[in-house]
Amino acid sequence: MTSPVSSRRTIRTVYQPIVDLRDGALVAVEALSRGEPGPQESPQELFASARASGTLIELDEGCLQAALHGAGRSPGPVTLFVNIEAVTLSALSPRRLAELADLVAEHVRVVVEVTERDLLEKAAELVRGVQAVRDLGWGVALDDAGAEPKGLALMPFLRPDVIKLDLALVRGHTTLQAAAVVNAVRAEAERSGAVLLAEGIENEAHLERALAMGARLGQGWMFGRPGPLPSVGMSALPVAPSPADRGARPGARARTPYDLLTATSPAQRATVPLVASMTRQLERQALLLDEQTVVLANFQTAAAMTPATRRRYESLASLSALTAVTGAGMPDEPAPGVHGTALESGDPLTDQWVITVVGPHFAAALVARDVATGAGDETLRAHGRVAHSTRRLDYVLTYDRQRVLDVAGLVLERVRAVPRAVPARPPAGSSQTQRAVGVPPTVLPDLLLRAISTASNGIVIADASLPDLPLVYVNAAFLRLTGYSSDEVLGRNCRFLQGPATDPTQVQPLRRRLLAGRDVHTVLRNYRRDGSAFWNELHISPVTNAAGDITHYIGNQLDVSSRVERERRTTYQAHHDELTALPNRAHILDHLRLELRRARRSGGSVAVVVLDLDQFKQINDQFGHAAGDRALSWAARRLRSAVRAGDLLGRLGGDEFLLVLGGLPPTTSPPGSPGPAPSADETLRRVREHLHAALDRPLALTDVTVRLSASSGAALFPRDAAGVAELIAHADAAMYLDKSGG
């Protein structure tokens, strides 16, 4: 369908199928917008042009309107997924949404896809917009989950009915970051009943990966390219109701966090120091979580944001997806990276002390309110003249996730959008950092300073009271270790030692532990001034003052490259064949045992393929063992190139190889049975064909060119055998039958 959007743009709508991965049934379509033929035909160019001209919201509304019109022309029921930018949804008024809802035909079910990008810029407005969409009876999907991991932080507040896994998760390699995204998504789906949908499925490998991630729905070229709206054959898509639709919770409609929690839990009475220490413990816990964490707090007055508190919240903002604070007189940015909102006069939240932490696998909230102790206390308290020893608070602490989300939602709905400006860091050697260089004598007495300066290990000291933790002292051993001069390192954060091979999954937890006041012991790949890499063993400890505040960090550094390389070499040799570099017999058998345990739990099947090179002895006899070794290495490389991702090829010994294929469907399904995934027998047949084809290449040996071939045999668990030895024996017998021409 073609629709005019403005005097400058015309769009047309195409629809891509969404299928149930269990049986391949068509259950929904996604509306995709295209420009008219020309420079803006692609959606990327179309929307980029709209952003550049400031008409993105106008274009987005037009695309939504065109999609709704097109779906209404279908003669049968349609579940329609429509994209809408987060900025557009947060800008649409309830009245405008209602006007768009009037365009929806009775037989069309609408699911609005909110893209994960830019979710955090206007978090409160977006949450309100999503609620307005739900009030219309529309479903909500979170699009591109994983494209920007921090965007997942709002997932618990949006409560999507469908979570769409970004195509990079389906097509990419397994990484710790990808695993963190999948774990967070699976946890949310388990709690809320949301359905997982995998995008970008184009082949069987993508399909296998999507199923392994828990996806129930799928879309991609494997199931159909964008085109006209299918007129028939669409089944109903069962989308679970959101948690808000499953019945009201006690206190869920309360006006303040304190009212909400005390509706079901009695408050405890405590002094300010105790409540403050409990609050700091929750802040410290947030520092140890991942980048998908949201920290929302309310201060009774902006005066409570002391310099020490601002430093803590700056650290929280640097490590979390969103850190926002509200309070009477609160500035827009009370600390770098922190969203601030001044509460309106008379807001009941100004009387409450609130801290909430929400991560994918952790949630906590503490809410407190002053206990009235006499006339005039409120005036004294506003001026900070009520002593901690006489001030009392009633508080409630909860780790119940849904109650925490309810509390956090009451704070979040008050947060205004604030442009996030990245504070400029002063360069090394600037006046700001120069003031940091030099350790006070009270921190390092002269004798201790002389002892550290002569130590054989590299020792550094960083100032915890300044942004970016600049180095204020380095000893001679550190300078020898790294090749830098003191002028080049003082005033800089120690991360300048990091480089391309430094593992970010080790660095981020290290920083979190430091800011949380924990000791750190790790080994990192670091770089010297000349660019050479070395393995750096780090011991870092916080130094606190009498009040318990962290003032400095002391780091002890040691070059352990020889030890690490020796350990890696020993580990590699213990698990790999020296000649072919394939996993050795012990490694491949351990892997097979692991796959069998997984299959017993899941009900799936496992296949093994034994391959033996044909007439290999003749190569050794004719051309010598050196030529035979080259032939074995060549065969190993060729066979490995034909192995699917996730399967493991190893050398059993001699000229015999073993391939283990895990995660196959149950063998109880008869060959050729309907379903989106191939049967175990079909997969096994294709893999064996690829292995034999991989060897069908000429191999140059000295003065002659030869061709290798192999005989193979296969066995399937649990159909053919139940144990490791029995499976291999069954496959071995089949291989000899193949070799003999049987």
Write the layout of secondary structure elements.
Layout: E1 2-4, E2 10-20, E3 26-35, H1 43-53, H2 56-72, E4 78-84, H3 86-91, H4 94-101, E5 108-115, H5 123-135, E6 139-145, H6 155-158, E7 162-165, H7 167-171, H8 176-192, E8 195-198, H9 204-212, E9 217-218, H10 257-262, E10 268-271, H11 272-287, E11 294-301, H12 307-319, E12 322-328, E13 339-342, E14 352-359, E15 362-370, H13 377-382, E16 392-398, H14 401-412, H15 431-434, H16 446-453, E17 458-463, E18 471-474, H17 476-482, H18 486-489, H19 504-515, E19 520-527, E20 533-544, E21 550-559, H20 561-575, H21 585-602, E22 605-613, H22 616-623, H23 625-641, E23 648-653, E24 656-664, H24 680-695, E25 698-701, E26 704-707, E27 710-717, H25 724-739
Parallel strand pairs: 3-4, 4-5, 5-6, 6-7, 7-8, 8-9, 11-12, 12-13
Antiparallel strand pairs: 1-2, 2-3, 2-9, 10-16, 11-14, 14-15, 15-16, 17-18, 17-21, 19-20, 20-21, 22-24, 22-27, 23-24, 25-26
Helix pairs in contact: 1-2, 22-23, 23-24
